[in-house]
Design brief:
Belongs to the short-chain dehydrogenases/reductases (SDR) family. With 249 residues, the chain is of the alpha/beta class. The chain has nine helices and seven strands. The protein has a seven-stranded parallel sheet with strand order 3-2-1-4-5-6-7, with helices on both faces. β1, α1 and β2 form a beta-alpha-beta unit.
Length: 249
């Protein structure tokens, strides 16, 4: 029996990971800030899939909360086989219109939490000789779109390096780079969600990413349209890319 730990597990991509991994038979450790919603999701998953579901209430901007999640990942007696670093948020305003504290909080979740949780997980996984990490990044990582893109570019670079570094020790690390996805992410930013060809369904996104992960890939970029966009970024100068509208999760 495998155990998967998912951050940001009560909504959007994180919730879809919980559903699909539970359907595979994985026991789950769900991490999020909202205790009531965590319990609601956990109860539904236990009932639907007959798996064990543990909940950890944690705000990943709080170092004490983050340390509790790190400790759970590092627990050799209760091994976690797959870590999904999914938790995240974006800021609607431009850089100088946000406070430095808001920008720092975003980096705490998108970068610091990914680093610290990966450090805890990789230590235990490399020691056992098996395990995996999926870091939810973004197509935005390939585009010059402010601090969100910069943070996701760090996630890509870190994930690619870890994939190469720990593959020989039985650990697969993969960056998932979604484009626009139909979740609550944009609603929380008060950004209108569309329904055009650029918008992906979360179930397709997660299903594709798990297929790519099972194949041992370093990157998963679901959707032909986003594979094309990423390919073009390698050939188009940054001054042209700056004209591209914000592409996120």
């Amino acid at each position: 029996m495998s155990t998967s730990l998912i951050t940001g597990a009560t909504a959007g991509i994180g919730h879809e990971y919980a559903v699909q991994l539970a359907a595979r038979g994985d026991d789950l450790v769900l991490v999020a800030r909202d205790a009531a919603r965590l319990e609601e999701v956990a109860t539904a998953l236990r009932r639907a899939h007959q798996v064990e579901v543990e909940v950890l209430v944690a705000d990943l901007t709080d170092r004490d909360d983050l340390a509790r999640v790190e400790a759970r990942l590092a627990d050799r007696d209760r091994p976690v086989d797959l870590l999904v670093n999914n938790a995240g948020f974006g800021l609607k305003k431009r850089f100088l219109d946000n406070t430095a504290d808001d920008e720092t909080a975003m980096l705490e979740v998108l970068v610091t939490a990914v680093l610290r949780l990966s450090h805890a997980a990789l230590g235990a996984m490399a020691e056992r000789g098996h395990g995996g990490i999926i870091d939810v990044s973004s197509v935005a990582a390939f585009l010059p779109r402010g601090t969100y893109s910069a943070a996701k570019a760090w996630v890509n670079s870190f994930s690619e390096w870890a994939h190469l570094e720990y593959k020989s020790r039985g650990v697969t690390v993969m960056a998932l780079c979604p484009g626009f996805t139909k979740t609550e992410f944009h609603e929380r930013m008060q950004v209108t969600r569309g329904d055009g060809f650029l918008w992906l369904d979360a179930d397709f996104l997660v299903r594709t990413s798990l297929e790519d992960f099972d194949k041992g890939r370093a990157y998963s970029i679901p959707g032909a349209q986003y594979k094309t966009i990423v390919t073009l970024t390698r050939a188009i100068p940054n001054r042209v890319l700056r004209l591209t509208q914000n592409l996120g999760r």
